[in-house]
Amino acid sequence: DFWIARYGKNDGQPAEAYRPDVGEVCWQYTSKGRVAGISGSVDLNLLYKDYGSGGSEPSQEPKELYKVRVTIDNLIIRSGPGTNYSRAGGYTGAGVFTIVEEKAGQGSSSGWGKLKSGAGWIALDYCERL
Fold first, then answer.
1. Model confidence over 21-54: pLDDT tens digits?
2. Which of the listed residues 38, 43, 50, 108 has the most CB atoms within 10 Å of its CB?
3. Mean pLDDT of the chain
4. Whole-prediction pTM
């Protein structure tokens, strides 16, 4: 298992272009994050592997991955699949991203896709499946 620190601009937001793609388990994407109740900056990480309850059985079925091309520069990342969920902080920017799960939700006729990076959910209305 790997834990990789790779910051990019290190502005407190995950930058998909800097996400490691080498069998990572955890990506520390900033040392300038903010958490309610903690004064000052903190390291923020995205966990890719589900350790479940710590037992030997996986806690869920493997997810089918696919890539999408985001066609706009300011696609909002949400904390859940719908505009009724809060913003997770930031935008995707235009580019290619990996989707690990799909769900229907408010505000998108094409559904919502969960980003592999763990940053949150994006409306698939603004994506082209590759």
1. 766 578 888 999 888 888 999 998 887 766 655 5
2. 108
3. 82
4. 0.54
CA distances from 83 to 60, 89, 110 (A): 26, 13, 13
Q: Is 47 helix (H, G, I), strand (E, B) or coil?
A: strand
Q: What's the full length of the chain, in residues?
A: 130
Question: 20 with 35: CB under 8 angstroms?
Answer: no
Residue whose token pair is 């903190």 = 42
CA 130 – CA 126 distance, rounded (Å): 13
Residue 84 CA: distances (Å) to CA of 39, 60, 71, 81: 29, 26, 22, 8
Residue 129 phi/psi, 5-degree rounding, is -70, 130
Q: How high is the pLDDT of residue 61?
A: 46
